[in-house]
Design brief:
391 residues, mainly alpha, Na+/H+ antiporter like fold, 79% helix, 0% strand, globular, Na+/solute_symporter_sf, transmembrane helix, transmembrane, antiporter activity, transport
């Protein structure tokens, strides 16, 4: 029976990108046909902890402790993800900001300036996403590329805790900025509760089940089944995110405009009467999607080379360099979604989901290339470090 489970797990892992894109298409269709945003949001709050739970089931406590002893690899992961990648993101933002301000005109009316909100949202929330290393499906892609998936898996809790610590520091200033203390912003307590629900509870449950599975065959069988279902749960999560995002966006377009423009009371009184082009909001959002695709695509092209440089700096072996390159190139968009929704205004939450979905789609296309490109590049350029790393 274990062999059968392993066979279908290998099949799902090999074809996971196809399942993910089918799930996104299915969610888009659901969002177009039905207005399910509120229901999808509730399901999302449940399924994201489940996704992390099955991911953490693959991380034995003993392996975390053992692999933390591999100081060189852990240090390379931390430096690559939390030093070099933020520098790359900052450079990309500077380039994007330069182009944005050249194209924008400060003399525009408030309504026209509000149409720039999607661009700013893609840049702002994209910046947070691109600075957060993935802790879920990165392991599957690393395994497909013959990287050191076991060491990477063991380091996932460390990566997640550090990025959430940075996110908490960032959000503390965000919540306590007097100008941002609006009725639309939840209390910081909601943010802390989200961390417990999405991170600490799944991690604790996973490690408790691992301990029980050593003495109980039923629990061991169930644990094995749940570990092998990570691809399907990820696909289901993507479908729910797509349904949520597109249900909101399509309902907004049905109303000839969208909430992200934040039209002022002056506009309602007729100051911009007969000058408002309702199609311009859709056009602005479409252009923002193109901007986001270009932004995330450029990151996807450059990020693996950050991994190669970091691996060379820390003298990692071939498998570890592959794992590091996947880690710095794959972002934590799915897990960060509930936290981004917590710190975002209510009228921007659909756009946040759209940002996450856009980044994920670009990333999945990049993963198809990574699985072939990264091992070939590493094999060609890494030879002398192999013996040193395997001691």
């Amino acid at each position: 029976m274990e062999t059968e489970h392993r066979d279908w797990f290998v099949f799902l892992e090999k074809h996971q990108i196809k399942f993910y894109f089918l799930a996104i298409l299915g969610g888009t269709a659901i969002g177009y046909l039905f207005r399910v945003a509120s229901s999808a949001n509730e399901v999302l709050n449940f399924i994201l902890p489940v996704l992390l739970f099955v991911t953490f089931l693959q991380v034995p406590v003993s392996s975390v402790i053992d692999n933390l002893g591999n100081k060189r690899f852990v240090a390379a992961l931390l430096v690559g993800n939390f030093v070099f990648i933020p520098i790359l993101v900052a450079l990309l933002l500077l380039i994007g900001a330069g182009l944005f301000f050249q194209l924008s005109d400060p003399s525009h009316s408030p309504y026209e300036q509000s149409l720039q909100a999607p661009y700013l949202a893609f840049a702002f929330y994209g910046m947070i996403l691109l600075c957060a290393p993935c802790v879920d499906y990165v392991v599957s892609f690393c395994r497909l590329a013959k990287g050191d998936s076991s060491s990477l898996t063991a380091a996932l809790p460390v990566l997640l805790i550090i990025q959430l610590a940075f996110l908490m520091l960032f959000s503390s200033g965000w919540f306590y900025d007097e100008q941002n203390m609006q009725a639309t912003r939840p209390d910081i307590i909601d943010f802390i509760i989200s961390i417990f629900q999405v991170l600490l509870v799944p991690l604790a449950l996973a490690w408790i089940l691992q301990s029980i599975s050593r003495y109980n065959k039923v629990v061991a069988y169930s644990t094995s089944f749940m570990k092998n279902s990570v691809v399907m749960i990820t696909a289901f999560t993507l479908m729910i995110i797509a349904a949520y995002a597109f249900s909101e966006l399509f309902s907004i377009f049905d109303d000839n405009g969208y909430a992200f423009t934040k039209r002022s009371a002056d506009e309602a009184t007729g100051i911009y009467e007969n000058t408002t082009d309702y199609g311009s909001s859709e056009k602005a959002l479409s252009h923002a999607f193109i901007y986001g695709i270009a932004f995330y695509g450029l990151y996807a092209c450059l990020a693996p080379f950050v991994g190669f440089f970091t691996a060379k700096l820390f003298k990692l072996c071939r498998k570890q360099e592959i794992a590091l390159s996947f880690s710095v190139s794959t972002r934590n968009s799915l897990v960060l979604l509930p936290f981004l929704l917590t710190i975002s205004p209510a009228d921007e939450q659909a756009l946040v989901a759209a940002v996450v979905l856009t980044q994920t789609c670009v990333e999945l296309v990049a993963e198809i290339i990574y699985v072939r490109f990264i091992p070939c590049y590493v094999k060609k350029h890494v030879r002398s470090r192999e013996i040193e790393c395997e001691r």
